[in-house]
Every structure is written in C-alpha cells, then in structure tokens.
Design brief:
Blueprint (H helix, E strand, L loop, with lengths): L4 H4 L6 E9 L21 E9 L4 H11 E3 L5 E3 L1 H12 E3 L7 H6 L2 H8 L10 H6 L9
Antiparallel strand pairs: 1-2, 2-5, 3-4
Helix pairs in contact: 2-3
Length: 143
C-alpha cells in the first residue's frame, strides 16, 4: 500500500453548531445557573445561536499551544488559557451572527456566550488531539 497524501492532510470541513446561550431574566437580571435552575420569580431564557466552525490542523494547534506557554526566572511554566482559547476561536469560527471573531469581539463577550464558545475549543492537555479536532461539533452537548 502506497502513501496516500490526500488522506493524510487535514480537511477543514465546516460544521454547523448550535450554541445554547443562557440569557438573563428580564426582570431581575439573574441567569440560569449551572444546574438549570431558573430564576425563582421569573423565567430566564435560552437563545440558540447558530455558527459554522472548522477544526484546527495539528501544526497550527501546536503553534498556538507553544505561544500560550511562558517561563519565569525560576523555570516554572505558565499556560495562558485565555490566549489559547481566543486564538483557537479566531481560527475555528467561520460564520457567526456577530461577524468576524476577533480580539475586539472576544473582549466584549459575556459569560453565558463565552462558556458556550469555550466548549468548542479542543482541550489543550488532551493526549489524543485528533479526537478533539475531528469531533463532530454538532454532537456537542449543550447545557
């Protein structure tokens, strides 16, 4: 069997993802919490946000990880998770209602949307990164 170059290359195939974003209660500004408990007095809402995402090729993901790691004078390593998430999202989100996903947008994102966006980013510490990159984003459980 000969080497099949085409099978070995990463294919950036867009996938549709629905983000279920918890909106604050319009009466008291309370969000639905982690346990899906609603505002006691009013009904908080969930809004579906539809986006198109693609995976990140292996070399690019490794580059982002390496840029997120820094060292101090005592040779301790630090991982900048915010940088990692932002860089991944800027590459992964192709189409979204907010337009281009850039640093300006990501600095303004509220907690409920940010949590949902975080769920589509491959784990930085995963042993098998291909599982994260190739996962079917449409099957991500949204809570």
């Amino acid at each position: 069997m000969s080497f099949n170059r085409e099978r070995m290359l990463f294919k950036r195939q867009p996938r549709d993802v629905t983000l279920s974003v918890n909106l604050p209660c319009t009466h008291c500004d309370t969000f639905i919490n982690e346990d899906d408990q609603k505002c006691k007095d009013h009904d908080a809402m969930v809004e579906n946000v539809y986006i198109k995402v693609v995976g990140i090729p292996w070399a690019r993901l490794n580059y982002i990880k390496s840029q997120a790691v820094s060292f101090d004078d005592n040779k301790k390593t630090y991982f900048d998770g915010q940088f990692y998430i932002n860089e991944c999202l800027k590459l992964m989100v192709l189409e979204a209602p907010w337009g281009k996903t850039d640093d300006v947008f990501l600095l303004q994102v509220d907690k409920p949307l940010g949590r949902e966006l975080e769920k589509i980013v491959p784990k930085a510490s995963s042993e098998n990164e291909n599982d994260n990159i190739q996962q079917d984003f449409s099957e991500i459980k949204k809570e």
